[in-house]
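Saturday, quiet lab. Running sequence design on the structure tokens for the scaffold JK sent over.
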């Protein structure tokens, strides 16, 4: 069985590119709100 290598740099670039597209038309305050909401969702999900 062949193990696949995890490419952290590729993953991080993908995340950064996705966020850049999402943030393109958001104000700084909207970006902060978006991030806070995502963190809250993650915390809620992680507790179950």
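Result came back. Writing it out in full:
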């Amino acid at each position: 069985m062949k193990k696949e290598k995890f490419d952290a740099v590729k993953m991080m670039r993908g995340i950064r590119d996705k966020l850049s597209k999402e943030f393109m038309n958001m104000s700084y305050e909207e970006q902060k709100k978006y991030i806070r909401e995502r963190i809250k969702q993650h915390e809620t999900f992680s507790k179950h």
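Notes for JK: The chain is about 75% helix and 0% strand. Residues 24-48 form one domain. Ask whether to fix the surface positions before the next round.
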